[in-house]
Amino acid sequence: MVKKEMIAMLLAGGQGSRLGVFTSKVAKPAVAFGSKYRIIDFPLSNCINSGVDTVGVLTQYQPLRLNTHIGIGIPWDLDRNIGGVTVLPPYEKSANSEWYTGTANAIYQNMDYMESFNPEYVLILSGDHIYKMDYEVMLDFHKQNGAEVTIAVMPVPMEEAKRFGIMITDKDRKIVDFEEKPENPRSNLASMGIYIFNWKTLKEALLKNAEQPGLDFGKHVIPYCHAKGAPLYAYEFNGYWKDVGTLHSYWEANMELIDIVPEFNLYEEYWKIYTRSEILPPQYLSSESVVERSIIGEGSEIYGQVYNSVIGCGVTIGAGTVVRDSIVMNETQIGCNCELYKAIVAENVRIEDGVKIGVGEEAENETDPHIYNHGLVAIGEKSVIPEGISIGKNSVVFGVTSAQDYRDGALPSGKTLIKAGDK
Q1: CB of 142 closer than 8 Å to CB of 121
Q2: Residue 176, Cβ neighbours under 10 Å: how many?
Q3: Which residues, in sequence order, are CB contacts of 391 under 8 Å at separation 6+?
Q4: CA gap 217, 101 in Å, rounded
Q5: Measured at the alpha carbon of residue 4, what is the angle toward residues 121 and 142, in degrees to the nearest 5?
Q6: Exposed, middle or buried: residue 210 (CB in 10 Å: 0-12, 13-18, 19+)?
């Protein structure tokens, strides 16, 4: 029988509804990030860099692009005969077909997969955070303390603590209590949703709580382990960690990559971030082009000006066009004499000549102010913006639009234009 010391289970089924149109056709972990990467590349790269060579990726919502991206795991050196990466979608049982209803339910439904490796430890990860972390160091901490469950925590400002699951520990970092989004937090150690379980402990907790509706780690599994007296420890992480769950935090995390001294460095030799790369020609900058403090992906052609932006692979930016403080994802074509300010443009979009995006005064978005805010403009994938249109701030466009869709050639700030069939 195969025996692995530690295997990882990566939860990548999230819909990521707070990313609006960017996750309407693709799972959040598959959203492009930092020009050439996708969000899931970060936890996968952490695994292989930490010596964890067996990873189950649990998918559910819109998994096609994620499955294609992961493939058999070659970029992460996870194409192994034993272990490697396995995509685990929900499947039909003989009795009934079941979607994953909660984070722990997804793990419970894959007991056989985990059992087949007879692991000592199981590492539970989430597929939608940007960070670098050596899970081996966390495992050493887990072993040294004789823990049955170790929860990675991050100190957050006390005033933000009420947004998180908070761990209360003694001086040895043993968890004495925890609170889910407390009104008056007693500690600032926020759970990162990264757990190491002894396999025996995890197995028992899942079997005993299997019938709980929406079986969840924070609500059911960890309280169960704590109640039965299993030693729980908090492993403190002090590196860069970003939950890119909202459009604004997603935009910020991309912008932080191009800081003069980036808080999150993609260029470290000893901790590479691996991804599936297409075979593309090098990027081309014409003699008229200007590029300042930006990342430009392979195969992109720049004839205009790009300032403080993250540009994906295979993008064309026409002559006379100015792009500032924006994210443009793969294979998007932007015509000549356009202006883009604080725009997030998805993959395979076509923006015709003379389009202005992110102009005018800010106004609150009419349909989803909690998603489209901070003056950003969101353009969903495969959208088409016709020539000469101007689009205001906090607005969103999704679909193949024509001049008739815009009154007087403009979409004012705060407006939502989603063509039927692109919902």
Answers
A1: yes
A2: 12
A3: 355, 356, 357, 358, 359, 377, 385, 397, 410, 411
A4: 12
A5: 25
A6: middle
- Reference 18, options 371, 406, 381, 342; nearest CA is 371
Candidates 87, 84, 49, 83; CA nearest to 68 is: 87
Walking along the chain (423 residues) 10 residues at a time, the average pLDDT comes out as 85 76 83 90 92 87 70 67 74 50 83 91 91 95 96 90 88 90 88 94 93 85 92 93 88 91 80 82 95 95 97 96 97 97 96 96 93 94 95 95 93 90 52
For the record, the structure tokens of 167 come out as 């761990």
Place of tokens 């800010």: 362
Which residue blocks in 7-147 are alpha helix, DSSP H? 41-49, 64-70, 103-108, 111-115, 135-144
Which residues are bridge partners to 327 per DSSP?
Answer: 310, 344
Encoding tokens for residue 237?
């992480």
Residues 354 and 334: their CA atoms lie apart, in Å, by 10
How many Å apart are CA 43 and CA 152, to the nearest integer? 14
The pair of structure tokens assigned to 32 is 């492009």
Structural contact between residues 398 and 380, judged by C-beta atoms closer than 8 angstroms: yes
Whole-model pTM?
A: 0.90
Question: What is the three-state SS of 337-395?
Answer: CCEEECEEECCCCEECCCCEEEECCCCCCCCCCCCCCCCCEEECCCCEECCCCEEECCC
Q: Which residue has the tokens 């909660």?
A: 102
- The SS3 assignment for 24 reads coil
Give the CA diameter of the chain: 70
User: Cβ(295)–Cβ(258) under 8 Å?
Assistant: yes
